[in-house]
Design a protein that fits this description.
115 residues; mainly beta; two-stranded parallel ribbon; 2 helices; globular
């Protein structure tokens, strides 16, 4: 079982240490169980990085912060255009971001194309 790092929300900086891939070897897994895991194929993006959120129709947006759940690091993304279902579901709330893990986002180049 993992280290069960306490969930943390609204983080302004990338927490350390972050393991950039999930260890499958049992010895390596045990040695790294106190580290936060990142599921993305690229290093953790900095705040302000443009991404595409690849689930539920969220689409393009900007990383605004970080969170940790169940030992995994995720990002808060302010989407450029919210899906209709999200607008209806969150009517009257102050939600400004969607939450996504590394495997659920893709980096955008400055011109808007994916990297």
């Amino acid at each position: 079982m993992g280290a069960n790092i306490v969930a943390k929300y609204n983080l302004e900086e990338i927490p350390e240490p972050v393991l950039s891939r999930h260890p499958f070897d049992p010895v390596e897994k045990k040695a790294n169980e106190e580290k936060i895991k990142w599921s993305g194929p690229v290093p953790v993006p900095q705040k302000g990085t443009r991404v595409i959120v690849r689930f539920n129709g969220f689409g393009k947006g900007t990383i605004k912060g970080y969170f940790i759940e169940h030992d995994w690091l995720g990002v808060y993304v302010a989407c450029d255009k919210w899906p209709e279902w999200w607008i209806k579901q969150n009517k009257g709330t102050k939600h400004k971001y969607c939450m996504a893990f590394g495997a659920e986002i893709e980096l955008l180049a400055p011109q808007g194309e994916t990297l």
